[in-house]
């Protein structure tokens, strides 16, 4: 098993870990979840963001961060356009994870670092495909770094979702889709509305969807769920337990879990009567391998996944390490 990398300044003084990732020598924080003077935010999920004194992010992420944290001063980073700050040349590239998500390329006289954050190589209904570039060092999220997480082709999964939701509606049921408030809910909404299925959203999801729409991501025929189902409409709610009787105002409910974790047999067995759709906003195992090959770094540092993925990369000839 590969040992973790803990010592600060461990790669020629380019970055360090201190309860989060920091660029050196500037100490620009990268997806650090406590307040910092300057922090890059790859996307607005709570485990990647904080109320920094100055947040560096894309415009959609800035809107979403301000929705979640209040008035956060931001410097918008348009994708592909470099900025100079604190001795670094920083460029944001699409990460393909959720609307507005971005990777960060940090260029310094000592070398270059590409930080992926959460990413997915292919485009989705609401996010551009990831844009990888070459770098000396790659810091990569590897949530699905196990061969069991080889997901079906995206078009197959989308067809599966549409067919099963349509079948539920045909049976007179209310399809209730359990999805994260930010990201997955909007992606599923866009998929459904694009195929003629209107969507009702729980209030916290609908608030985020309004920000998507204001930022230029049209989600189609979406309305707030007001306590009564509407025939022919799917309902999207956060992933919390719903009893079989399920949704206030709904008589017959069929539940859908839309997640890459649907590939895990234990997850499916936890709710055997539900529909499990393996639609993910993370790179699967094969995409993770492809990303490393495309970037071709001197060394790759892995986070947020199984440590065995480091050994997998080493077996393929990469200098791979676990970043603790």
Tell me the layout of helices and strands.
Layout: E1 4-5, E2 15-17, E3 21-23, E4 28-30, E5 39-40, E6 55-57, H1 59-69, E7 74-76, E8 82-85, E9 88-94, E10 102-108, E11 111-115, E12 137-141, H2 154-170, E13 174-178, H3 184-194, E14 199-201, H4 203-214, E15 222-224, E16 234-237, E17 253-258, H5 265-270, E18 275-277, H6 285-295, E19 299-303, H7 308-315, E20 320-323
Parallel strand pairs: 1-20, 4-5, 5-6, 6-7, 11-12, 12-19, 13-16, 13-17, 14-15, 14-16, 17-18, 19-20
Antiparallel strand pairs: 2-3, 3-4, 8-9, 9-10, 10-11
Description:
By secondary structure, this protein is of the alpha/beta class. The protein folds into two domains: 4-148 and 282-323, Metallo-beta-lactamase, Chain A, CATH 3.60.15.10; 154-277, 3-Layer(aba) Sandwich (Rossmann fold), CATH 3.40.50.10890. It contains seven helices and 20 strands. It has helices at residues 59-69, 154-170, 184-194, 203-214, 265-270, 285-295, 308-315; strands spanning 4-5, 15-17, 21-23, 28-30, 39-40, 55-57, 74-76, 82-85, 88-94, 102-108, 111-115, 137-141, 174-178, 199-201, 222-224, 234-237, 253-258, 275-277, 299-303, 320-323. Strand 14, helix 4 (203-214) and strand 15 form a beta-alpha-beta unit. The longest helix is centred in the middle third of the chain and has 17 residues, at 154-170. Mean pLDDT is 92; it is low at 1-9.
